[in-house]
Specification:
- With 370 residues, this protein is α+β, with helices and mostly antiparallel strands.
- It contains eleven helices and five strands, in the order H-H-H-H-H-H-H-E-H-H-E-E-H-E-H-E.
- It has a five-stranded mixed β-sheet with strand order 2-3-1-4-5, with helices on both faces.
- Strand 2 and strand 3 form a beta hairpin.
- Helix 2 packs antiparallel against helix 3 and helix 3 runs parallel beside helix 5.
- The radius of gyration is 34 Å and the shape is elongated.
- The relative contact order is 0.07.
Length: 370
């Protein structure tokens, strides 16, 4: 996983959290509205029946309908594949901003809600999106201005000077949140890179622990984990699962007559041929010494044989400067299909026995286990 994929995964998780936070916020506000409504209903001296009905319409019914519509639109936009991750991030943030705007407009009697829209700027810092933060600063400025105008016009609890002081405080808080968000954004960028660097190093270390250093194929430890996964696939009725054992012919002669360095070159060459033929080294393992294992899933036997034969023939035809012209490096190969009664040990033994039969029958060939 590269940095772009890592960041995309991080943003997908953040989008999911924003969605959950938005729903939680709507539910919380609705519950509080219901509690206040019940209180108003049983205290008729506070409001007249007409005011109570108006309250239900303006502060519960209309906001709830708008919020549900907004959530539906948000979900439809996020489910489409036409938008980039950056655009989807902004859709989530603007959805939450709009929700805060609804709360501010429809609950203006409570002074604390005036501050809500500017809190969304903190989300932009989590996304490390500089352009989004600037846009939110101007958007929240417009929303806060409209909310303050409504507050000044409709509020009868405060004197005019108190309203001016509250307005100044709101503007100052908005600007302070913008500055804090900008600082957090720079910190978040550094943190994201730092976390990914550590993640990449851990991945590298994990891969190295499971890779054989000479051939760069996976080692026996990795094979043990892979074989269990393949058996589980077989138990789920995934058809055509094969294990192939490749045993080098006369490899001891290469080491004895030409030295271990020459033997290493032969092993590396075989690993390169395997990786090139299979397209990767994910299903290739150095089992030990001069024995290699390949695993195949969802491939018919004809395709397995075709790939194995490509490896065998190319390896046979490889010319090494340090070997005599008449000396050829070849492979004896055993192929075994997984059967329900097998476990990891018996399955390997079936493929290994087939490779032994290939060697016994003249080498440089494959045998399919019965």
């Amino acid at each position: 996983m590269n940095y772009t994929q890592y960041k995309a995964d991080f943003h997908r998780k953040l989008q999911s959290r924003m969605w959950n936070y938005t729903i939680a916020l709507d539910v919380l506000v609705l519950v509080l509205d219901i509690i206040v409504s019940i209180y108003y209903y049983f205290n008729q001296s506070l409001v007249s029946p007409f005011t109570f009905h108006t309250y239900l319409t303006l502060e519960i019914l209309i906001p709830v309908v708008l919020q549900i519509l907004l959530l539906i639109i948000n979900r439809i936009l996020l489910m489409t594949g036409h938008f980039s991750m950056v655009v989807k991030n902004r859709i989530c943030v603007y959805t939450l901003l709009t929700q805060f705007m609804f709360i501010s407009f429809f609950h203006i009697r409570y002074e604390v809600v005036i501050f809500l829209p500017c809190m969304v700027m903190l989300l932009a810092s989590m996304l490390a999106d500089k352009d989004l933060l600037k846009a939110l600063f101007f958007a929240t400025g417009v929303i806060e201005t409209a909310t303050l105008v409504m507050f000044i016009v409709t509020n009868t609890k405060h004197f005019y000077t108190q309203k001016i002081i509250i307005s100044i405080i709101v503007v100052c808080v908005q600007y302070m949140i913008f500055l804090v968000s900008r600082s957090l954004m720079n910190f978040q960028k550094g943190q994201l890179h730092h976390i990914y660097d550590n993640y990449a190093k851990m991945r590298e270390l994990t891969v190295e622990l499971k890779q054989e250093p000479l051939t760069r194929l996976y080692n026996r430890t990795a094979y043990a984990g892979a074989i269990e996964r393949y058996i589980k696939l077989a138990e789920k009725n995934v058809a055509d699962i094969y294990q192939v054992v490749l045993d080098l012919d006369n490899f001891k002669s290469v080491n004895d007559n030409y030295g271990h360095a020459a033997g290493d070159v032969v092993l590396i060459t075989l690993a390169e041929i395997i990786t090139k033929t299979l397209g990767s080294n994910r299903s290739a393992f150095r089992y030990g010494g001069d024995e290699f294992v390949l695993l195949f899933k969802e491939k018919p036997i004809d395709e397995v044989v075709r790939l194995v034969e490509i490896i065998r023939k190319e390896f046979e035809n490889t010319v090494y400067d340090f070997l005599d012209e008449n000396f050829k490096c070849t492979l004896s190969i055993g192929i075994a299909k997984y059967k329900p009664e097998m476990n990891s040990k018996t399955w390997f033994q079936a493929a290994d026995e087939a490779a032994y039969q290939a060697k016994k029958s003249g080498k440089n060939q494959y045998v399919v286990a019965e």
